[in-house]
Design goal:
Elements (H helix, E strand, L loop, with lengths): L7 H22 L9 H28 L14
Helix pairs in contact: 1-2
Length: 80
């Protein structure tokens, strides 16, 4: 199975949209009353939060790639 890179921004966006879906499903079922205008700030805030998480994740990954992984010192002494 191929491994893929974790994308936390998409995870946050999916969780927020799932929350909005559960809220309205509970309203449709009659379990509770959810006002119609609740979805707008939840979706907008969730997408902004997901964008911020994606931005931070991208910067961290870019910074990790720019750090050299090899040592610049001399190798092992093989003259003896």
């Amino acid at each position: 199975m191929l491994r893929h890179e974790l994308q936390p921004g998409k995870l946050v966006a999916g969780a927020v949209l799932l929350l909005v879906g559960v809220l309205y499903a509970g309203d449709a079922d009659g379990a509770w009353e959810t006002p119609w205008f609740v979805a707008i700030p939840l979706v907008t805030g969730g997408l902004c939060l997901a964008g911020a998480v994606a931005l931070v994740t991208g910067r961290v990954r870019r910074r990790r790639r720019s750090i050299p992984t090899t040592t610049d010192g001399p190798g092992p002494d093989t003259t003896t």
